[in-house]
Design goal:
The complex is a heterodimer of chains A (about 350) and B (about 260). Chain A is an alpha+beta fold and about 350 residues long. Chain A has two domains: about 160 residues, no CATH class; about 180 residues, Heat Shock Protein 90 (2-Layer Sandwich). In chain A, about 60% of the residues lie in helices and about 10% in strands. Chain A has ten helices and seven strands. In chain A, strands 2-4-5-7-6 form a five-stranded mixed sheet, covered by helices on one side. A two-stranded antiparallel sheet of chain A has the order 1-3. In chain A, helix 1 packs antiparallel against helix 2 and helix 2 packs across helix 4. The radius of gyration of chain A is 37 Å and the shape is rod-shaped. Chain B is α/β, with parallel strands linked by helices. Chain B contains seven helices and 15 strands. In chain B, strands 2-1-3-4-5 form a five-stranded parallel sheet, with helices on both faces. In chain B, helix 2 packs parallel to helix 3. The chains are: A alpha+beta (about 350), B alpha/beta (about 260).
């Protein structure tokens, strides 16, 4: 498991150095005291000198582990850092015990290797140190790698919940888009104008508004719609918009009958058409034309909305929210199998195309 | 005021122009509607031609908006803004003590507005729409239209290919690399690696990118962090980035190496 770990973590993150160090020192102290307790039996000197020694050895191992975790900064390709750390901890053990015994030799006393009981003490300590420290270091390395893996799976989970949140946002956006007060009140103002003028068109407009609302309201609760359902929403919408801007909006629909029962996220088509009206036709003084083409190509369904309106130059700022959300919703449902493509003529007009699997 | 008062109506929706004209005909039969405009530009032109006393301006119009037109007209006429439900605009009008009407226009409300206008015309009081007030208003509204400053991160990159402009969703971008005069956009066209060229300098694009997902790793390279498959460090204080599903290797220079320090 160890040697398949990536050489570097790909994300930089502030590490709780204090927390990490505290934990390591605590482990080292616990082990040192534990070893001290075990070695009490058969130790000739004072218990305090024993514990002092085991603790120094434990801390020395911790230092070696921490030191080679960051130094040297670059390692040759053949050397894995964890291996260096474990070996370093091992090498530090006899060196540390050697130092302890040299430093603790009283002035004038013979060197410790000539004193058989001290020599025994050194041997025991070194042996236990060599036995325990590298394994503990190895355990720490494994633990750390596991924590890293856990961290990664956590961030995957986070990403998923982020997607779910986006889906929820999209539904909220739908709600706002469909009962957009601006649209509703403007349309009602038109209805009122027609009624007051005694126009025979009034009832036709009311019919379109009713059809639109009837199609829009239940859609809010459905996770998926069909192209046919979308058309029930888009037709009255376009009728209403054309009634409101008769001199500025023309439209045509070209729908492949085979595509009617294809499923899609709710308001897919409405989002495209609304985008064409709001960012193409509405900002343009002379208006333009919207063409809707829906085509079934075997296992694929292509929905294309083209307008000859203001184009990207004038409305680039506003462009986005609706389409961005739609794109996210498509991604959520179809993954890479669905694409939303946006192209623009060099001067005017925009084409938005949704190419998705034709599930029925 | 001896002569009949004159007015201009500006709205991009013909039905609503008709409706307002008819309603005014009932509430103020003496008022003469001398011009009807279909957008802000026309409103300005017709105002300059006819010099009406009063202008009814729809706030939302193509090209020049009602507020833009109002800026041009200034205090030369009494202004009444007309808007469909638009919370912020209404707030702005109310704060500036400007006259406004909500669509659909209610007769009673229109009658109130008309009596105020009549009083002002009779006493020859100047119009309240001061330049400063209108300036503030247009700033407020344009701020609202651009999304109120919230989430300004770039969402689409425009790439030109001949006569066609392709919009690339920012999430589909693997990395950006500057190349002499251009920026090369390496992205995924339905999962397949693709490349496009944009004229915007990398430096300018970088300022608009979401820093949580995009990081500069080299003077000429900005990478989507989610597109990285692995980072390989070299001995000479540099590293290289391998991108998911691509053979490309991107350089990481010393200054940016800290982004990929081991945990």
């Amino acid at each position: 498991m160890l040697d398949v770990m990536p050489e570097l973590a790909t994300t930089a993150r502030p590490v709780g150095i204090v927390v990490k160090t505290t934990r390591r020192v605590a482990v080292a102290l616990t082990m040192s005291i534990g070893v001290g307790l075990l070695m009490m039996h058969g130790w000739i000197g004072s218990p305090s000198s024993l514990f002092l020694r085991t603790i120094i050895i434990g801390l020395s191992a911790t230092t070696a582990f921490a030191l080679f975790e960051v130094w040297p900064r670059r390692l040759p390709r053949w050397l894995q850092r964890w291996a260096l750390q474990v070996v370093a901890v091992g090498v530090f053990m006899p060196v540390t015990t050697l130092l302890i015994y040299i430093v603790s030799t009283r002035r004038g006393a013979p060197p410790f290797w000539e004193d058989s009981s001290r020599m025994d003490g050194w041997t025991h300590l070194t042996f236990v140190g060599l036995l325990l420290a590298p394994w503990t270091a190895l355990g720490a390395v494994v633990r750390q790698k596991e924590a890293f893996a856990r961290d990664q799976s956590l961030s995957f989970a986070l990403e998923r919940s982020e997607l779910e949140r986006q889906a929820l946002d999209a539904r909220l956006h739908l709600l706002q888009a469909q009962v957009a007060p601006h649209f509703l009140f403007n349309t009602l103002a038109n209805v009122q104008a027609l009624v007051e003028a005694g126009s025979p068109h009034a009832s036709a407009v009311l019919r379109s508004l009713t059809a639109y609302l009837r199609a829009a309201v239940p859609l809010l609760h459905e996770p998926a719609a069909t192209i046919e359902r979308e058309l029930q929403l888009v037709r009255p919408y376009l009728e209403l918009m054309q009634m409101r801007m008769p001199d500025r909006l023309q439209y045509a629909m070209n729908v492949d009958q085979g595509a009617l029962n294809v499923r899609c996220p709710p308001t897919t088509l409405l989002t495209l058409v609304e985008n064409a009206v709001r960012h193409g036709i509405d900002p343009s003084e002379e208006g333009g034309r919207i063409d809707i083409d829906i085509e079934r190509r075997g296992e694929r369904c292509v929905v294309r909305v083209t307008d000859t309106g203001a184009g990207l130059h004038e409305s680039a700022n506003g462009l986005g929210t609706g389409l961005t959300t739609l794109r996210e919703r498509l991604q959520l449902i179809f993954g890479d199998a669905a694409q939303l493509r946006l192209t623009s003529g060099a001067r005017r007009g925009v084409t938005v195309e949704v190419d998705m699997p034709a599930h029925t | 005021m001896n002569a009949r008062a004159t007015a201009l109506i500006a709205d991009d929706e013909p039905l609503l122009r008709d409706a307002l004209r008819r309603q005014l005909g009932i509430v103020w039969p003496e008022l003469e509607i001398v011009a009807e405009a279909r957008n802000g530009r026309e409103a300005v032109r017709l105002f300059d031609e006819r010099h009406p006393d009063i202008c009814f301006l729809d706030v939302h119009m193509p090209g020049l908006s009602g507020v833009d037109a109002a800026n041009h007209i200034g205090r030369r006429a009494h202004l009444v803004f007309v808007t469909a439900y638009d919370h912020y605009a209404v707030q702005a009008f109310a704060q500036g003590a400007l006259d406004y009407l909500l669509k659909p226009v209610e007769q009673a409300r229109l009658a109130d507005t008309v009596s105020r206008l009549k009083a002002r015309l009779q006493s020859s009081r100047p119009a309240i729409n001061t330049e400063q007030l209108l300036q503030q208003l247009s700033e407020q509204l344009s701020k609202l239209q651009s999304g109120g400053g919230k989430s300004k991160a770039l969402r689409w990159i425009r790439a030109q290919a001949g006569n066609i402009v392709r919009l690339i969703a920012i999430d589909d971008v693997d990395y950006l690399r500057s190349d002499a005069k251009y920026t090369i956009v390496a992205w995924r066209d339905g999962g397949k690696p693709a490349e496009a060229v944009v004229r915007t300098p990398l430096k300018e694009l970088l300022t608009q990118l979401d820093a949580e997902h995009f990081a500069q790793v080299h003077r000429s390279v900005v990478v989507n962090l989610r597109a990285i498959s692995r980072v390989k460090r070299h001995d000479n204080e540099t590293a290289e980035i391998h991108v998911k599903g691509r053979d490309d290797v991107l350089p990481v220079s010393r200054n940016y190496l800290h982004l990929f320090r081991q945990m």
